[in-house]
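tokens incoming
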């Protein structure tokens, strides 16, 4: 444990930033208004139930993950252009961040603790900077009792690897009222907590990376044509359709700042 006072929900951007640097996470108070939170909750709950009925649910015991949310409802898109993304995620890991993946995380009574990991633990080079960062939107309340994300404060500075052992008393549960958002550094060790209540813990992760890193969700393949066609330009930029320096162009004609159009013309095979 880091020895400082641990982060609590706050509206103060400077406090959020200093919590993020010192502890590897911060909690933004009232990040979502009630109308937006209810919109996200209703869409996610409906999608989760329908995936279960269709036999498509991704389950670990009673806990359900709903993947690829960007393709499953415009209700989730406002999370991609929320001020937090520039103020905290971009501030921490650099401009032009792109979405790596978006997941619903529904934690119910009787599950096991999640896999111990940090979000940039897949790197095969030892890089000490944060390259990715995450937002856990608390769509329901988060508490220690209902399986709030467990984390090790300060672990973003410890160069931990996947699977490194953790003492039971090192864990702290992220807690906050509905509508809070926990922003965390990609080097922070964390896992899903255990819910010992009868109420489901409902969270949405929007996971971000620098624009030259491969995304967790293969957006080009995962987003259906009608989804991309309906996306406003700002959402397309955030989802990885914007050219970054020499990367991400089409037909080898990248132009800085362009937003590529998957439905646009291609040169294709010409001549004999
Ligand atoms: O459900 C949570 O609290 C955390 C989930 C998580 O860390 C993940 O899916 O990578």
């Amino acid at each position: 444990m880091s020895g400082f006072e641990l982060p609590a929900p706050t509206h103060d951007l400077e406090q959020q930033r200093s919590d993020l640097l010192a502890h590897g996470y911060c909690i933004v108070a009232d990040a979502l208004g009630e109308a937006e939170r209810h919109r996200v909750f209703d869409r996610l709950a409906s999608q989760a139930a329908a995936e279960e009925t269709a036999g498509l649910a991704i389950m670990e015991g009673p806990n359900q993950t709903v993947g690829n949310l960007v393709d499953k409802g415009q209700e989730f898109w406002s999370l991609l252009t929320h001020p937090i993304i520039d103020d905290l995620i971009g501030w921490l890991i650099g401009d032009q961040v792109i979405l790596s993946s978006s997941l619903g995380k529904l934690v119910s009574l009787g599950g096991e603790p999640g896999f111990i990991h940090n979000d940039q633990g897949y790197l095969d080079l030892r890089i000490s900077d944060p390259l990715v960062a995450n937002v856990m939107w608390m769509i329901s309340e988060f508490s220690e009792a209902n399986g709030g994300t467990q984390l090790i404060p300060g672990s973003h500075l410890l160069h931990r690897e996947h699977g490194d052992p953790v003492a039971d008393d090192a864990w702290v549960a992220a807690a906050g009222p509905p509508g809070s958002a926990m922003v965390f550094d990609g080097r922070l060790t964390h896992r899903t907590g255990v819910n010992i209540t009868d109420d489901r813990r409902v969270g949405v992760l929007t996971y971000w990376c620098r624009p030259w890193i491969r995304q967790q969700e293969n957006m080009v393949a995962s987003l259906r044509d009608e989804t991309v066609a309906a996306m406003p330009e700002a959402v397309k930029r955030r989802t990885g359709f914007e050219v970054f320096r020499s990367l991400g162009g089409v037909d080898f004609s990248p132009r800085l700042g362009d937003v590529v159009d998957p439905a646009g013309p291609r040169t294709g095979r010409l001549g004999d």
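note: Strands lie at 25-28, 58-60, 63-66, 98-107, 132-138, 150-151, 172-173, 181-185, 190-191, 201-209.
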